[in-house]
Amino acid sequence: MRGARQVVAKDVDDTERAARAGVRQLRRGLLGLARAGYHTGGRVYGYTAVPETPPKDPANPHSILVINAAEAKVVRRIFREFNAGMSAQQIALRLNADGIAAPYDEARYRKRQGRGWSQVTVANLLRNRRYIGEVVFNRRRFVRTGNGTRTVLNPEAEWIRLERPELRLVNAAAFERAQTERVVRKRPGTPRERQHRRPVSGLLTC
Fold it and tell me: What is the pLDDT of residues 123-150, one digit of tens each?
């Protein structure tokens, strides 16, 4: 019986090592594609993935990101309004009131927060460094726990940054100001936080 348990444990260890090796290989492959200027997958609001024309390798065609003018206008609006003092929740309410489709409204699967803009959607957009022409790899890693798998943020020194100036939608000053505002507004009891507690504030005019 003991020998059987040892065999099972060894098989589990071998499977986990093979899985980790597969993840590392996949990550290297995606990083190589990104360094070559290709899109590595996923929905990125503000851009559209289009096939490379003509493909360098017809047998293995890739996609590239190009700026989506209509969505880029919304991205700039979000940064402008946030830096002018509006909260992420206020911005989300205004975007929904204006009938502007949220990033995943047309997706074939449902997001947890449902259709439309939410405070979380706006907040995630505000910290996306792609909007200043910077693609970041290795920001997070998956860690197995007793309750499953969770995502952990890697130390910033381990991040891999790729400069993509052709994808810049907002200037660095506006982006960094938004990051500073995000930190300031998280401080409990600050005037900024009190100002943004009522989500409908600023939506009504007389």
Answer: 999 999 999 999 887 777 767 777 777 7
